[in-house]
Specification:
Elements (H helix, E strand, L loop, with lengths): L12 E3 L18 H10 L4 E2 L9 H10 L3 E2 L3 E4 L6 H17 L4 E6 L27 H17 L3 E5 L9 H10 L4 E5 H6 L4 H7 L4 E6 L1 E2 L1 H10 L3 H6 L3 E2 L8 H10 L6 E3 L10 H16 L2
Parallel strand pairs: 1-2, 1-11, 2-3, 4-5, 5-6, 6-7, 7-8, 8-11
Antiparallel strand pairs: 9-10
């Protein structure tokens, strides 16, 4: 890639409220008020926000606080259970989520398959390599693929894109499973999350280069290698890993963010760059961390 990362200067930079208040674990600053999150998010220099647990889930209720803080809605996580629940039920919940996003101006819908997921279980050890669980069975793969294709068509009919979020402790964590899913469902797009890739033992730069043309959304965070190694060695849960700082902001940790920015620039990426820092906000205060991450993105990309 020879393109300058400054080609990303036209991208918008948003934040995920998990910097302030963890969505999976209420004891990690889960009680931070929405107004505090949005006010500090804007103070840190972000243009938009993804959804979080403190956010109203009706367009009328959410539009006002976003507008008051001059923030746009970027997107939001939606858990799917395509491999284990009826498709009609899945479509109904997805359409409600899609309607909220579209009404407030978002153009991508984040999905992650959560059948048998363990990332929300404080005591479940994360798996790696031969011990990796959960994974889809061969009988579940066709149902999962057909479901994704259907939801992608639903999104396309609303002029929206589905972006798939590979995630630790879910059925799409391993590189082979990520590759298989993307090959099986060309209708969907990739949410590149360098932190989750690195934590899973996958080279995020290689993934960014291989799938540059399929990336339609980006989560920016990094990984502390020493903590990740302890997670593997000692069989930690996702909760314990997060609470002990396995994730950090872009520009810190092991992820080569400049190389990822070059891959994105080479593919003329025009989507959102969304900063995350999935740590304990009590141990690591949110606002200084958010400001640091925002400045790093500005320095590296011009955005």
């Amino acid at each position: 890639m020879t393109a300058s990362p400054l080609q990303l200067r036209d991208c918008l930079v948003g934040a995920n409220p998990i910097i302030w208040s963890n969505d999976d674990f209420a004891d990690l600053a889960g009680d931070v008020p929405l107004d505090t999150i949005l006010r500090e998010m804007r103070e840190a220099g972000f243009a938009g926000s993804e959804l979080g647990h403190a956010y109203p889930r009706t367009a009328a209720a959410l539009a006002e606080p976003l507008s008051r803080h001059s923030l746009r809605l970027v997107s939001g996580w939606h858990s799917t259970y395509l491999a284990s629940k009826p498709l009609a039920e899945e479509e109904k919940s997805f359409r409600a989520h899609l309607n909220l996003l579209k009404t407030l101006g978002a153009r991508v819908a984040i999905v992650a398959e959560c059948t048998r997921c363990i990332h929300g279980d404080k005591n479940a050890a994360l798996g790696f390599g031969e011990k990796l669980t959960p994974r889809l069975t061969e009988t579940e793969w066709p149902k999962f693929v057909a479901g994704l294709k259907h939801l992608a068509a639903v999104a396309a009919s609303e002029e929206m894109k589905i972006v798939y979020h590979h995630h630790m402790g879910t059925v799409i964590q391993a590189e082979a499973d990520l590759d298989r899913m993307l090959a099986s469902v060309p209708e969907i797009w990739l949410l590149l999350d360098a932190g989750h890739l690195a934590f899973a033992g996958i080279d995020p730069v290689a993934v960014a280069q291989r799938y540059a043309a399929r990336i339609a959304h980006v989560h920016l965070k990094s990984v502390r290698t020493d903590v990740a190694e302890r997670v593997r060695r000692e069989g930690w849960s996702f909760y314990r890993a997060v609470a002990n700082g396995v994730f950090t902001v872009a520009g810190d940790g092991c992820v080569d963010c400049p190389a990822i920015f070059r891959a994105l620039a080479g593919a003329d990426y025009r989507g959102w760059l969304v900063v995350e820092a999935e740590e304990d906000p009590v141990k690591v205060p949110a606002l200084p961390k958010a400001k640091k991450a925002r400045e790093y993105v500005r320095e590296q990309t011009g955005a």
